[in-house]
Design brief:
The protein is α+β, with helices and mostly antiparallel strands. It contains 6 helices and 19 strands. The chain folds into 3 domains: about 100 residues, OB fold (Dihydrolipoamide Acetyltransferase, E2P), CATH 2.40.50.140; about 110 residues, Nucleic acid-binding proteins (OB fold (Dihydrolipoamide Acetyltransferase, E2P)), CATH 2.40.50; about 90 residues, OB fold (Dihydrolipoamide Acetyltransferase, E2P) (Beta Barrel). A 5-stranded mixed beta barrel has the order 1-2-3-5-4. The protein has a 5-stranded mixed beta barrel with strand order 8-9-10-12-11. The protein has a 5-stranded mixed β-barrel with strand order 14-15-16-18-17.
């Protein structure tokens, strides 16, 4: 037999297993199939376990929260916003009383005055937030809901709208808010324990409308009346004494002394300040044969108008002609009146050209010392009176408005 013949396999012998490299592909395929089956089992087991772990009514088949009512947002009364809420955000609901846009070219914010049944507040925001407000053309007189942040500026509370989307104009039917759980509980308690009859002989409920300062007389002793007038002066009690606060309201030549204790003062949202128009409600008393008003609740002291339209801080009778002001007057206080020109923005303030029949001078108003309501009331073309100190800048004389209500719009 030749070598070639010896190499040929016997056709009658059974086939032999391949032990070399040709056997490895079959082993690799079996391993892959086993891993795939194991993965399928793991995925199936995971799905089963997740299905068992999910509670009934989960959001697997529909968006989470689709069948849930929106969370109730607690609304805070305007009178309840005090220093304790500084640094926090609150939701308020009220009616828009007025909108004060900033003068053209100025860097001041908008002012939105709103009111609810407890008082009034002004919400401030910038042009960016104003542009974001939907349906802003119908803001005047509308009922709104707003999420605002509470801060303090120059020792006064401020409400700031951080985004226009945080202000919502409500339909008329939504103007009345549903009672909160606390209010419901209080109502239930009152039904179980009715309050004793109120003594209306002491005038616990004031008649509708407000009286003028001069209409209050000693004959009304014991009655509760509501009076409106400009604040002439405010006297706080001396430290260590038990004296009340004393506010003098004035209307024309008539004056009325209004008193209240420190606990009442703590509740008053906007404190009385000279020049501002306030409405107060209290019991008529007689002191030294003169009527005076004793306020029992801080919620009955309300700011009506904080614009300086007739604030006594500027004595118009002392106004001098602009042309009479010279460099020799630098550092001296002067009162001027005239018509405002176009505003020029400063960093932290604004400058108006003030013109009277004799000449023109720059009027400088710094935001750090002039109340925001004063700044909002001014604008190009307005006739005003202003008090301030004579100064000079770049060789030009100017009037630097004094701190407080030092500028007012003339009728």
């Amino acid at each position: 037999m030749t070598e070639y013949q010896q190499a040929q396999p016997d056709p009658q012998s059974p086939p032999q297993k391949a032990d070399g490299p040709k056997a490895r592909p079959r082993q690799g395929a079996a391993s892959i199939y086993g891993v795939a089956i194991l993965l399928v089992l793991l995925v199936f087991l995971t799905l089963v376990l997740n299905r068992m772990a999910k509670p009934s009514g989960s959001c697997a088949d529909k968006p989470c929260g689709a069948d849930k009512a929106p969370a109730e947002v607690a609304v805070v009364k305007l009178a309840e916003i005090d220093d304790s809420r500084i640094g926090s955000s609150v939701t308020v609901v009220g009616k828009v009383m007025d909108l004060f846009p900033p003068p053209a070219g100025s860097k001041r914010p908008y002012g939105l005055k709103i009111a609810d049944d407890s008082g009034e507040k002004t919400i401030n925001f910038w042009q960016t937030e104003y542009d974001q407000i939907q349906d802003k053309d119908v803001l005047a007189g509308a009922n709104i809901r707003a999420r605002v942040s509470v801060s303090s500026y120059q020792d006064k509370l401020q409400l700031k709208l951080l985004a226009g989307q945080d202000l919502e104009i409500l339909p008329p039917s939504a103007a009345v808010e549903a009672p909160t759980p606390a209010q419901k509980a209080a109502a239930a308690y009152e039904q179980k324990t009715p309050a004793p009859a109120r003594d209306f002989s002491r005038g616990r409920s004031a008649p509708a409308g407000s009286l003028s300062v001069g209409a209050v007389t000693a004959a009304q002793k014991g009655q509760t009346v509501r009076v409106r007038g400009r604040v002439e002066s405010v006297r706080a009690p001396k430290e260590g004494t038990k004296q009340p606060y004393a506010v003098l309201l004035k209307d024309g030549e008539a004056t009325l002394r209004v008193t209240y204790w420190s606990n009442v003062n703590e509740v008053i949202t906007v404190k009385p300040a000279p020049g501002a128009l306030f409405e107060v409600e209290g019991v008529v008393e007689v002191y030294k044969e003169k009527p005076q008003l004793q306020v029992k609740s801080g919620y009955k002291v309300k700011l009506v108008d904080d614009t300086p339209a007739s604030a006594p801080a500027v004595d118009v009778s002392q106004a001098v002609a602009i042309s009479s002001i010279t460099a020799a007057d630098k550092g001296q206080a002067r009162v001027v009146k005239g018509t405002l020109g176009a505003p020029r923005a400063l960093r932290g303030g604004v400058v108006y050209a003030l013109t009277d029949e004799s000449g023109t001078i720059d009027l400088v108003l710094w935001e750090s010392i002039i109340p925001i309501d004063v700044l909002n009331a001014l604008g190009e073309g307005a006739k005003i009176a202003a008090a301030g100190e004579v100064g000079e800048y770049d060789g030009k004389l100017q009037i630097k408005a004094a701190k407080g209500y030092s500028a007012m719009v003339l009728p």
